[in-house]
Specification:
Belongs to the cytochrome P450 family. The chain is α+β, with helices and mostly antiparallel strands. It has a domain at 51-221: Cytochrome P450 (Cytochrome p450, Orthogonal Bundle). It contains 11 helices and 7 strands. β5 (237-239) and β6 (242-244) form a beta hairpin. α3 crosses α9 (175-187), α4 (90-108) packs across α6 and α10 crosses α11. 27% of the residues are buried.
Length: 263
């Protein structure tokens, strides 16, 4: 089977895509392929910038990582993360993940919670060992649960404590380097687990000979773990025949976005 033959239908209950829809609380929701492409490629549609906060708190982490940076600061901060990842050997990561997965399967017996035992734990352990962290199993997911702006107060409070715990076990270094190392770990939690879970589910419907890379590529495109991403306009933006003024919030609904010809 090739990628062209793989069919991943929308998640049941997913509304069809259509023209941008405005909500006074969240802004414009964008779902059509052409509109999504326009938003993600227009330099006037930018990621909302985090203002930062007290050192060691969640707001500080958001304000120091590349994910929520202003365009003029993003390249430098992104380069920090790229340098960290470049030092890792993907083949060695695969071997380590396969070893931990095999050990978990051997211990499991007849039943195994794929998400809890494999998807959430194995990638985190493999990555953190190579980032020089101690035991982030509890702290990493707590930060990930509140990483994006909009989390409730209880999750933010838990994440504040978790950020402090992560920093205590992180090798010392310049603040931006420490923050972006931590950010790599946080972004690997829920997103990686979601990708593994979706690939395992969709993989049941494809031949075992299908290359894993092809399966993952289509899952990322059609049933991605990141369900949406936000942008805000910094200049007038033409979208779907209209013009959005500066300061307009946009939400790209990734699961509803389908290319022409997709199921």
């Amino acid at each position: 089977m090739t990628v062209d033959q793989l069919v991943i239908a929308p998640v049941p209950g997913t509304p069809p895509c259509g023209p941008p829809v405005f909500d006074p609380d969240t802004g414009w929701t964008v779902t059509r392929h052409a509109d999504v492409w326009a938003v993600l490629t227009d330099p006037a549609c930018q990621v909302p910038v985090s203002g930062g906060g007290p050192p060691g708190a969640l707001a500080w982490l958001r304000g120091a990582v590349s994910r929520f940076s202003a365009p003029e600061r993003h390249p430098t901060r992104r380069a920090v993360g790229v340098a960290i990842l470049t030092a890792l050997d993907p083949d060695e990561l695969r071997v380590a993940a396969a070893r931990l997965t095999g050990e978990a399967l051997d211990r499991a017996g007849d039943r195994l919670d794929v998400m809890a035992v494999l998807a959430r734990r194995v990638p985190l352990r493999v990555l953190t060992e190579r980032l020089g962290l101690a035991d982030p199993d509890a702290a990493g997911p707590a930060v990930a649960a509140a990483y994006h702006p909009g989390a409730d107060a209880a999750r933010v409070a838990a994440a504040d404590g978790a950020v402090a715990a992560l920093l205590a076990m992180t090798p010392p270094g310049p603040p931006e380097a420490v923050a972006n190392r931590t950010g790599l770990l946080v972004q690997a939690c829920d997103a990686t687990a979601g990708l593994i879970g979706a690939a395992a589910r969709h993989g049941l419907a494809v031949p075992p000979t299908m290359p894993t890379g092809e399966l993952l590529a289509e899952v990322l495109r059609l049933d991605p773990p990141v369900r949406g991403t936000r942008r805000v306009t910094v200049a007038p933006v033409r979208l779907a025949g209209g013009v959005l003024p500066p300061g307009s919030a946009e939400v790209v609904d990734v699961p509803r976005h389908r290319r022409p010809g997709d199921p």
